[in-house]
Amino acid sequence: MKQAESILVLLVPLAAMILSSLRWLRVAQREHYVPPMTTKFAMRWWGLRDKPINSVAFVLGFLVAELTIRPEFSKPLKLGLVVILSLIVVIFPLGLGLKGRTSKLEWTKRLKRLAGLSYLLAVILAVLGVLINVAPLMVSIAALCYPVLLDLATWLIAPYEDRSAKRFVQAAAAKLAKVSPRVVAVTGSFGKTTTKGYITALCSQSMMTVASPASFNNRAGLSRSINENLVASTELFVAEMGAYRIGEIAALVDWIKPEISVITAIGPVHLERFGSEEKILSAKSEILTGAKVAVLCVDYPKLAFLANDLETMGTRVWRCSGSDFRAEICVKADEEGGLVVFHDQRKIGYLPSGELSAGNVACAVAVALELGVGEEVLAKQLFELKPPPHRLTATVVDSSGLVVLDDTYNSNPTGARHAMTSLAKRRAPGVRTVVVTPGMVELGHRQFIENFKLAEYAAEVATDLVIVGKTNKRALTKGALDRSKEPGAVLKKVVDVATRDDAVRWVRENLKAGDVVLYENDLPDHFP
C-alpha cells in the first residue's frame, strides 16, 4: 500500500503536467519555438494584475511542493498535497485554457518531438529526485514550472531541427536555381504582406508571378512555398521575409538571393524582441545583401538615411513615399478620396480607394517599374488594386447593415492611426463609430505609451471604445478617459470585455444599421 502511495505521489503531478502542457505547447508553437518566450508568457499569466488569484495559486503551489518533502508528513498526506498541486497546475493560470479559442494546437512532427523531450526532462528530474530523496518536490516543481522545461527542450532540440530543415532548404534552393525567376524580397517592421500583395497584383499581368502565401516569411515557410508552388514557367518570385532575431534574414538571402529588395517601414514592432530600433534596422537591412536594387520607403527617417548610404556604395535605390513629392515614386491623396501615383513628379496612375497604404503602394510601383512593367498596364492594375484581407477592408453585414472596417492584421502604430483616419471619414450625425481593439503588443518599453496614444486617437473619432483582454487595458483606458475630457473628443463610452467573441456580441447587441465599427488588431488567445 505504501509503495502504491509513493508511486502515486510521483505519477499524479506528472499526469497533471502532461495535461497542462497542452496550453504551454500552444504558446511555444504560436511564438515560433523561440526560447524563452514560453516562460515569458507564463510569467505574464501567473502575474496578471487583474487576476491576482493566479499569483496566489502559483505561490500556493510552491508552498505545497515544499511541504511534500517534510519527513513528519505521512504518505497519504503527501498524496493529498500533490493532488492539490496537480489541480493548481491543471486549472491555473485562469484565462489561458487547455484548448485554444483562436487557434488549435497543431501536432506537427516538430511539436511531437518537442513535447516528448520536455516530458523526458521531467522524468529525469523525477529520477534525480528519487536519488536524493526529494522526488515529490522535484516532480511538483517540474509540473508547476513546465514552461521552463519546454524552453529548455526547445533550446536543446534546436540543432536537430536546423539540420532537419536543411534538406527542404536545399531542395528549395535547387529548384529556385533551376527555374531561375527574377526574385523580389520584401521586409519591414510592418506592411510586408500588404506590399507583397500589391507587387503580385501589379506584375501578374506582365509575367508569371508566384508569391509566398499568407505570412510564410521564415525559412520553413519560404522553402515550402518554393517547393510546392514554383513551376517551370515562373518568371517572378516575390518572397516576404520576417525576422525575430538578427541573422535570420541574412540566412534567407544567402540562398534565395533577391535581385530587388524592399524595406517597407522601420518602427517599434517587435521592439520587445530586438531591444532597439537600431537593431531592427540592422536586422531588416540584411535583406539588401547581394541585391542589385533597393526599394525603400523614405517616410521613415532611418530608411531615408539608409538610401543615401546605399547610393554612395553604388546600389541603385528607389526612394518611395506616401507624402514626399521629391521621391522617385510618390503616392498622394487627392480631394476626391483617391490616391494619385507620381513617378519623378509625373502622374502615371490613380487609385480610387484611399484606404490603401500609400507608402506600400509606392514601393510596389517602384518594383513593377524596375521589372519593366509598362506604365499603361501599371495604370490599369493600379485602378483595380484592392487591400488584402483583414487590412482595413470595408464590408457591410447583410443582416444588420452595420459597416465593418476590418484591420485585424495591422498591429502597428502607423497602421492604427491610418485606420482611425478612415473611421473618422465615416462619422455623421446619429452614427455611432466604434473601435474594438486589444491594443498593440511586442512594442517593448514603448508599449504603454503607444497604446495610450492609440486610445487618444480613438477618443477623437469614436463614440465607443471596446477594449479586448487585459494586455493593454490600463494604457487604453487611461488614454481614452484622459482625452475624452478635452475639447473635440467624441468618446462617450469605454467598455472592456474578455475576448474577441464577447466584443462581437457587444457590437451586435448595441449597434444598429449604418453604425460603423473598426476592428483594430486581434491577438491570439495566448496573450492575456
Labels describing this entry:
528 residues, alpha/beta, UDP-N-acetylmuramoyl-L-alanine:D-glutamate ligase, Protein-Tyrosine Phosphatase, Chain A, nine-stranded mixed beta sheet, globular
Characterization of this structure:
It is built from 19 helices and 15 strands. Helix 1 (2-30) runs parallel beside helix 6, helix 3 (52-67) runs antiparallel to helix 4 (75-91) and helix 3 packs antiparallel against helix 6. With 528 residues, it is an alpha/beta fold.
In short:
This protein is an alpha/beta fold and 528 residues long. It has helices at 2-30, 37-46, 52-67, 75-91, 109-131, 135-144, 146-179, 192-203, 219-229, 248-256, 271-274, 277-285, 301-312, 358-370, 375-383, 413-424, 447-461, 473-484, 500-510, and strands spanning 182-187, 209-211, 236-240, 260-263, 293-297, 316-321, 329-333, 339-343, 346-351, 393-397, 402-407, 433-437, 464-468, 493-497, 516-520.
SSE inventory with pairings:
Layout: H1 2-30, H2 37-46, H3 52-67, H4 75-91, H5 109-131, H6 135-144, H7 146-179, E1 182-187, H8 192-203, E2 209-211, H9 219-229, E3 236-240, H10 248-256, E4 260-263, H11 271-274, H12 277-285, E5 293-297, H13 301-312, E6 316-321, E7 329-333, E8 339-343, E9 346-351, H14 358-370, H15 375-383, E10 393-397, E11 402-407, H16 413-424, E12 433-437, H17 447-461, E13 464-468, H18 473-484, E14 493-497, H19 500-510, E15 516-520
Parallel strand pairs: 1-3, 1-4, 2-3, 4-5, 5-6, 6-7, 11-15, 12-13, 12-15, 13-14
Antiparallel strand pairs: 7-8, 8-9, 10-11
Helix pairs in contact: 1-2, 1-4, 1-5, 1-6, 1-7, 2-7, 3-4, 3-6, 4-6, 5-6, 5-7, 7-9, 8-14, 16-17, 17-18
